[in-house]
Design brief:
It is built from 5 helices and 8 strands, in the order H-E-E-H-E-H-E-E-H-E-E-H-E. By secondary structure, the protein is an alpha+beta fold. Keywords: Cytoplasm.
Length: 247
């Protein structure tokens, strides 16, 4: 004899209950709550002392519970699908963000490389310019030396040489020539100052320079600038060339 038959013989009113995971649940709310937590769908009748229900009411309750459980399952599946879609969206957004960061890093590297090549190109151009400038200065020095050799002597051997003055001719960076008469006992620095003041084309503006004689070749130092002109053998005439000062 089943437990249900024994209870009926003892006179206890029996009603429909539901068994889920071996647990007796008394009403719809308890069953729905348990189903939502465990995702269980299978249930069966169980004997328990409850409010008497008719057979028709029992069938209706069973059908209602099955319908509600199916609705709960459908809603849960929809929520899981929605959550999966949201996770996929977040994953794609994170992937796009990482791709953007990587692209920005590559763009920065390319920019640095282009700037480095630009600097190298400028340095090469400046070096080439310096070489060409030095070649030009050397040519001018040779030309000035040749002109000095071809220049006739200002006085004959029988004439008395006047060493109190000196006629100096200076060739500037741009090839132009300036001339001036100086006292032979003036320091050579006066000649350099006069050259700087008479550079009308501003070819030497901001450029450190000194003076040199092409023949015999001699570049005058800062110490030489303090000595008088006649001490350098520049009397009575001299041809000089402006050259860049190298410390």
């Amino acid at each position: 004899m089943s437990m249900l038959d024994q209870l009926q013989e003892m006179g206890f009113p029996l009603d429909l209950a539901y068994v889920l995971c071996g647990k007796n649940l008394a009403d719809d709310q308890a069953v729905m709550f348990h189903a939502m937590r465990t995702n269980h769908e299978e249930f069966s009748e169980s004997a328990e002392v409850l409010k008497p229900l008719t057979q028709e009411e029992k069938k209706e309750k069973l059908a209602s519970l099955q319908h509600k459980l199916k609705e709960i399952k459908v809603r849960k599946e929809e929520e899981e699908k929605k959550e999966a879609l949201e996770k996929e969206k977040r994953r794609r957004l994170e992937g796009k963000s990482m791709a953007k960061v990587e692209q920005e890093r590559k763009d920065l590297e390319i920019k640095k490389l282009l700037e480095q090549k630009k600097r190298e190109k400028q340095e090469e151009a400046e070096a080439r310019k310096r070489v060409l400038e030095q070649i030009r200065l050397d040519r001018e020095a040779r030309k000035a030396a040749q002109e000095q050799r071809q220049q006739p002597q200002s006085a004959s051997p029988n004439e008395v040489r006047d060493d109190s003055f000196c006629h100096i001719q200076v060739r500037l960076f741009d090839g132009s020539v300036i001339k001036e008469k100086f006292k032979s006992d003036e320091p050579l620095s006066h000649v350099r100052l006069w050259v700087e003041m008479n550079d009308k084309n501003l070819t030497m503006k901001g450029t450190p320079f000194t003076l040199m004689t092409p023949f015999p070749r001699k570049i005058f130092t800062e110490e030489d600038m303090e000595a008088p002109i006649k001490a350098h053998g520049l009397v009575p005439t001299a041809n000089m060339v402006v050259t860049r000062f190298v410390p």
